[in-house]
């Protein structure tokens, strides 16, 4: 789909949200059925999801996905992942497994230099081929209409850069490095920073948020977190990142109220956040 067409579609979806509070990413009845078939977890976004997880370590990517993909006729949204500098997916394995347990297919690039998102975007290409391959375990089980990019540090910058791909619908940059340009993306974005991060100070992440005034953008600063607070199982970053991805990629109505509306759940959670901001685009979305 041409990028200009994709931009127009995003504008129409956001306009519809403002008008009627519709669930995002549901272009029609078929999409609504597919998303609805992913089990709800209530508001337990930080707890393991309902799926057992399978992991395939390959040359270019590591795939984390539900062992029983498509068992109830569902298709599974995709998260493409970028590692921090010098890291591999195994460093973040528990977080990526967590997302797979919630019903996502995670394509994690096996590169320690993810900044330009080339390998991340290639993960979508692989899943497109396997979704079309009748001999693949992924055949007709991948929801290619709902794709998110996420990553940590250098991979956080890569998550922003990957969102320039018209196939990506939302981004979650976690403590993102500086080599990225938010102006090239047109998707809703959730920036996560750590209050005590000395490697990527919060002021740098806030600058990305400020530069994202053309899309709905939310900034959350985890109280007390350093730069390594998101490795392993994601720590305090895990639940809010999962909620955001479930909302934009699965239409999780419970997650909507965590981010949007005047009484949003995360807005007043001063135990979790040392700073919380929403731009005008995010403020306008209904809760």
From TrEMBL:
<dbReference type="InterPro" id="IPR041127">
    <property type="entry name" value="PET_hydrolase/cutinase-like"/>
</dbReference>
<keyword id="KW-0732">Signal</keyword>
<protein>
    <submittedName>
        <fullName>Acetylxylan esterase</fullName>
    </submittedName>
</protein>
<dbReference type="Pfam" id="PF12740">
    <property type="entry name" value="PETase"/>
</dbReference>
<feature type="signal peptide">
    <location>
        <begin position="1"/>
        <end position="29"/>
    </location>
</feature>
<dbReference type="InterPro" id="IPR029058">
    <property type="entry name" value="AB_hydrolase_fold"/>
</dbReference>
<feature type="domain" description="PET hydrolase/cutinase-like">
    <location>
        <begin position="62"/>
        <end position="253"/>
    </location>
</feature>
């Amino acid at each position: 789909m041409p990028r200009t067409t994709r931009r127009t579609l995003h504008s129409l979806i956001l306009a519809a949200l403002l008008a009627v509070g519709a669930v995002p990413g549901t272009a029609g009845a078929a999409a609504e059925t597919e998303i609805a078939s992913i089990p709800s977890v209530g508001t337990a976004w930080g707890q393991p999801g309902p799926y057992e997880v399978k992991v395939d370590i390959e040359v270019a990517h590591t795939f984390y996905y539900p062992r029983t993909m498509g068992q109830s006729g569902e298709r599974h949204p995709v998260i493409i992942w970028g590692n921090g500098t010098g890291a591999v997916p195994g460093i973040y394995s528990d977080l990526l497994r967590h997302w797979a347990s919630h019903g996502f297919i995670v394509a994690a690039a096996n590169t320690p230099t993810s900044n330009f998102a080339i390998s991340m975007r290639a993960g979508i290409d692989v899943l497109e081929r396997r979704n079309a391959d009748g001999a693949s375990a992924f055949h007709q089980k991948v929801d290619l209409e709902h794709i998110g990019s996420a990553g940590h540090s250098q991979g956080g910058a890569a998550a922003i850069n990957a969102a320039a791909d018209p196939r990506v619908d939302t981004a979650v940059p976690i403590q993102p490095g500086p080599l990225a340009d938010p102006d090239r993306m047109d998707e809703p974005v959730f920036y996560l920073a750590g209050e005590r991060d000395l490697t990527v100070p919060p002021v740098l992440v806030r600058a990305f948020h400020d530069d994202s005034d053309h899309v709905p953008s939310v900034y959350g600063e985890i109280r007390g977190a350093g730069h390594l607070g998101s490795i392993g199982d994601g720590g305090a970053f895990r639940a809010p990142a999962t909620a955001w991805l479930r909302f934009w990629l699965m239409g999780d109505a419970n997650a909507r109220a965590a981010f949007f509306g005047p009484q949003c759940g995360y807005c007043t959670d001063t135990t979790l956040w040392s700073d919380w901001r929403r731009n005008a685009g995010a403020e306008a979305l209904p809760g």
